Amino acid sequence: MKTNYHTHTIWCDGKDDPETVILSALDKGFDEIGFSSHATYPDDSACTVPAAKLADYFADIRAQAAKYADRIRVLCGVEADFIPGSTDPDRSRYAAFAPDYIIGSIHYVIAPDGARVPVDHSPPLLRDGIDAHFRGDVEGYIRAYFAQEREMVTRFDFDVVGHPDLVRKFNVKHPYFDEGASWYREELVRTADAIAASGKLVEVNTGAISRGWLEDIYPAAPFRDLLRERGVKFILSSDSHAADTLDCAFDRFGDAEAYIQRPFA
Ligand SMILES: [Zn+2]
Ligand SMILES: [Zn+2]
Predict the structure, then answer these.
(1) What is the CA radius of gyration of the chain?
(2) Is the CB of residue 159 less than 8 Å from the CB of residue 200?
(3) Phi, psi of 227 (to 5 degrees)
């Protein structure tokens, strides 16, 4: 079974339109494909489908799904942000659009002064954010990221935890913390506990590979071990932003976990 449910298009910050992505999925032998545009409904923010266009996005994907129904199953969801005080990935928030599934992700950490620090936009923006809003305290910033993630999985009703250790994205090319530190392990344990208690799926995400930041997946092996030991189930995702990266590194990580097949049947 070849599937991917974490897929971006020109509706948000992806490169290709949905039909081009579906044709690529057919060419690559996918059995199912799901779209997951960035959303911060009802607000707009960088890289998301504008809130006023969200209904059009769903209508477009549903039309494509009907067009290709005899060749591939096409689902439509969102990758919804949790930005405390602004938006969250709860099912009730997106209910009017009837998404097939919701991926909950954190791309901004709310600092003690209320500022939004972008986790994965660029190394300089991250460095500036930690310096300006966490007084240069990297550990404090990363602990805040995981605390926000625990709040997200505990408070809200959604399906899949997106790239749960996104803070690692720049840590190979621009190292800024020690992934072997005991405080980091403590955050992983607490977060694995919270995810397990929530019953949510976790994605194994190859997106940092296609974009050249890492040779490895989210979550890293020590975090995956903690999640697996607690009975958490995984799906495989490419977090693809272009038609040709739909199955990026699936050959390397296709058996990294016993993935759940057709989780949204
Ligand atoms: Zn994301
Ligand atoms: Zn994504």
Answers:
(1) 17
(2) yes
(3) -70, -50
Q: What is the pTM of this model?
A: 0.98
Class of the CATH domain delimited by 3-253: alpha beta
* Residue numbers in the chain where pLDDT is lower than 50: none
The residue type found at 190 is: R
Span from the CA of 119 to the centroid of ligand 1 (angstroms) = 10
d(CA 87, CA 82): 6
Judge if the upstream peptide bond of residue 42 is cis by omega within 30 degrees of 0.
Answer: yes
Q: Ligand 1 centre from 61 Cα, in Å?
A: 19
The SS3 call for residue 255 is coil
Give the model confidence (pLDDT) of 150-167 as tens digits: 999 999 999 999 999 999
The CA 70 to ligand 1 mean position distance, Å, reads 30
The C-alpha atoms of residue 43 and residue 163 are separated, in whole angstroms, by 22
> Residue 147 in 3-state DSSP?
helix
116: CA distance to ligand 2 center in Å?
18
Whether the CB-CB separation of 232 and 195 falls below 8 Å is answered with: yes
Nearest ligand for residue 238 CA: 2
